[in-house]
Design goal:
Length: 356
């Protein structure tokens, strides 16, 4: 799986001249139950083969042809026996070849040959798959799981066993009430430990999103102890007995909470951006205004549909992007080059500048 740093490095890559070509290949394995693996393999092969023929006709770029031939051989192997989605980024002239496994939702099978790598499907992968922790908590113990993409890792378990004093229900009568209060104190202390642990992890940025599983009766007490940093990352909680909770059960509960939370988050973002644009507040709409705001460093998040595409030009000197296809840069007067899709330049810029 790709890391943010690797994505960033790909976003920094740009061909220096026509002798260099940046090749991006996405392979999607298809849905297992409809036996379309085979078809996807054939589709991938056809796609690469066609581009290869065009490239052989139009350029003498031997290294790019080599890259595509290597991808074609891989596509032939993918034919039928590949369950995982994959991305390959190559530029032979710069000695660059990188392969990554991807979550299957990332992109359909596609090939791009351009000046930069095609990173839009990957930019979305990070916003759709936050580094997630699941905390499973009961009155004495806590388990922490980390989920990044398809990978699940058991992180840590700790127990705060009730003291002898706390466990004892004392002599029937005057001591019982005291012992009960004592138990409640110890449980609260345990929850405080859990909350401290989560706070420290949030400060170290070990997770971006958090889901908590615990018994419903314990939730209000636990919730009270959580630090505001942690609450900010908390997507929701579910009802769980941690003893009987397998990793798979925890994963499926957490996924459903994350998916609801993301959907809600997207709706909120869209609403805020549109309202912001209407009231001349925190939001703009339309390519021209978005490009301008991005250039001024005012953009925190760009919202677009997966299919969005628009023609634009970029300045060969200062990198200014313009939705009007003007021959000279309005920013510095130098020549522009046409982009068949503005996202080719906009997405790498967003990744480099930590724009969501
Ligand atoms: Zn310029």
């Amino acid at each position: 799986m790709i890391s943010r740093e690797e994505l960033r490095q790909l976003a920094c890559f740009e061909c220096r001249d026509d002798n260099e070509l940046a090749i991006s290949f996405y392979f999607h394995p298809g849905v297992p139950q409809d036996k379309s693996h085979r078809e996807e393999g054939i589709l991938a092969k056809d796609l690469v083969g066609k581009t290869l023929r065009e490239l052989r006709l139009h350029t003498r770029n031997r290294q790019a042809v080599d890259d595509l031939e290597k991808i074609l051989r891989m596509a032939e192997e993918l034919h039928g026996n590949q369950a995982r989605a994959k991305a390959i980024f190559a530029c032979g002239a710069r000695n660059l070849w990188q392969e990554f496994d991807l979550p299957p939702v990332a992109s359909p099978t596609k090939l791009f040959v351009n000046r930069r790598f095609h990173l839009r499907p990957l930019a979305a992968v990070f916003s759709e798959h936050p580094r997630l922790w699941v905390a499973l908590v009961d009155r004495q113990s806590a388990r922490f799981l980390e989920i990044q993409f398809e990978q699940l890792r058991e992180l840590n378990t700790f127990t705060s066993p009730l003291s002898r004093h706390g466990r004892s229900d004392g002599y029937a009568g005057y001591n019982a009430g005291h012992a009960e209060r004592h138990v409640e104190d110890e449980v609260r202390r345990h929850f405080r430990n859990v909350a401290e642990f989560l706070k420290a992890a949030a400060e170290r940025r070990q997770f971006e999103a958090l889901v908590i599983g615990c018994q419903d009766v314990n939730w209000p007490v636990l919730e009270q102890q959580l630090h505001p940093y942690v609450v900010k990352r908390l997507l929701g909680h579910f009802s769980a007995e941690i003893g009987g909770m397998t990793q798979e059960m925890a994963l499926s509960q957490a996924r459903s909470i994350v998916s609801d939370a993301l959907q809600q988050h997207h709706q909120t973002l869209v609403r805020e951006a549109i309202e912001g644009a209407r009231s001349k507040g925190r939001g703009v709409t339309g390519l021209r205004r978005v490009l301008r705001a991005a250039e001024l460093g005012e953009v925190e998040c760009i919202i677009m549909t997966p299919e969005y595409s628009a023609r634009a030009v970029e300045c060969t000197n200062c990198g200014h992007l313009d939705s009007h296809t003007v021959p000279y840069s309005p920013a510095c007067g130098r020549k522009t080059r046409e982009l068949s899709d503005v996202c080719e330049a906009l997405v790498p810029t967003a990744i480099r500048n930590n724009i969501r």
